[in-house]
Amino acid sequence: MVRLRNWLASALLLILVSLPSPSMAFDLNGIWATDPALCSKMFEKRGNEIAFSPLSDLYGSGFVVDDTRIKGKMAQCTIQSRKEEADTLRLEASCATAIMDSTMRFSLKVLDQNSISRLFTGMEGMAVTYYRCTL
Questions:
Q1: Quick one: which of 6, 23, 98, 127 has the most CB atoms within 10 Å?
Q2: What are the distances in angstroms from CA 104 to CA 17, 83, 95, 115?
Q3: Burial class (CB within 10 angstroms; exposed 0-12, middle 13-18, buried 19+) of 44
Q4: Contact of 71 with 32, CB cutoff 8 Å
Q5: For residue 131, what are the contacts with CB-CB under 8 A and spacing of at least 6?
Q6: Domains, the chain, ranges and CATH?
């Protein structure tokens, strides 16, 4: 009986170890800029919030992600759906500018925990790399 119990425990342990581990979702939250050396010129803290500096356009492109919200200099978006496939995030978002509302689709390739590239559908080889900022 002890032998059977040990064998079953060993078999169960082997099964558990061989199961694929659940993948961790990429944490997109944060401040992102095309040049990490210029983050402090592009963004500023206003109380508890991060905002674009008045001259941020002079230093590159960037955005802020907070849970399901993406804030750019000219648009604000709410993520409606998110699908992670290997190293690519596919986002669909409702976006609003001063002129109009629209639905946007974004493809982001995760390079590492602190850098991503935005891929442009239909434009093979075109990408913009963003780096996570710390302020």
A1: 127
A2: 41, 14, 7, 21
A3: middle
A4: no
A5: 32, 33, 34, 35, 36, 114, 115
A6: 23-133 (2.40.128)
- How much of the chain, in percent, has pLDDT values that exceed 90? 71
Rounded to whole angstroms, how far apart are CA atoms 28 and 122? 24
Q: Distance between CA atoms of 60 and 27, rounded to whole angstroms?
A: 23
- Residue 122 is predicted with a pLDDT of 78
Counting beta carbons within 10 angstroms of the beta carbon of residue 38, is it exposed (0 to 12), middle (13 to 18) or buried (19 or more)? middle
Residues 6+ apart with CB under 8 A from 5: none
Phi, psi for residue 47 in degrees, rounded to 5: 70, -125
The yes-or-no verdict on residue 59 having pLDDT over 80 is yes
Q: From CA 77, how far away is CA 43, in angstroms rounded?
A: 18
Q: How far is it, in rounded angstroms, from Cα 57 to Cα 41?
A: 10
- CA dist., res. 115 & res. 32, Å (int): 8
Average pLDDT, integer, range 101-123: 92
**pLDDT number for residue 1:** 52
